[in-house]
Amino acid sequence: MVKLTVLYTKPSNPQEFDRYYKEVHTPLASKLPGLKKMEIAKVLGSPFGESDYHLIANLYFDNLDNLKSAMSSDEGKVTAKDLKNFTDSPVQMMICEIN
Amino acid sequence: MVKLTVLYTKPSNPQEFDRYYKEVHTPLASKLPGLKKMEIAKVLGSPFGESDYHLIANLYFDNLDNLKSAMSSDEGKVTAKDLKNFTDSPVQMMICEIN
Are the C-beta atoms of B54 and B43 separated by less than 8 Å? Predict the structure, then answer.
């Protein structure tokens, strides 16, 4: 199994970010072909205090081919294009293989 | 449910990192009291090329109290102290609440 991990840094307006993420972005991402599971985690902090991050999303796929197909699909393009509508700082993405 | 997300940046010696992580660090972390699930993911790259990260670990607990208790337990202290034995760059940790 593989996953796409998306790290969102703290937005300037967390309330508006959360609203948009829930109402618009999550429904778009849910339509990705081959998506097996989506885990959305709110960052509460770090063990040492504040964290630079606000949200971490993990999108699971059966294999790397399926993940890549999802990202290059029409749904993937729409989801990626939507990022700029609610983020005002860089978004980090990692493609991971689960051991 | 909550989780501790640990981001490891690329080590200078990935092979030795992987060996130590599997043979020593994972068995230590597995003993954390209250640990429900551990997911270890190898970073293959980013959708845009190379990633700064090498590995992402997610350690799941039933709730925030259990996570904090695990971190302050003897096993937690041993696991945290072990980080310096195989990492040569900063390790980022986030405490997250799963929505």
Answer: yes
Whether the predicted interface score ipTM is above 0.90 = yes
Residues of A in contact with B10 (CB under 8 A): none
Residues of chain A with C-beta less than 8 angstroms from the C-beta of B53: 94
**Residues paired with A53 in a beta bridge:** A9
pTM of the model: 0.95
Which residue in B41, B52, B46 sits closest to B3, CA to CA?
B41
Give the span between the Cα atoms of B32 and A20, in whole angstroms. Answer: 36
In chain A, the residue whose alpha carbon lies closest to the alpha carbon of B71 is A47
Closest chain A CA to residue B96? A43
Per-residue pLDDT reduced to its tens digit, A8-41: 999 999 999 999 999 999 999 999 999 999 999 9
pLDDT at A48: 85
- Euclidean distance between CA atoms A48 and A96, whole angstroms: 26
Q: Is A81's pLDDT higher than 90?
A: yes
Write out the two tokens for A8. 């969102």
| CA pair distance A58, A40, nearest whole angstrom | 6
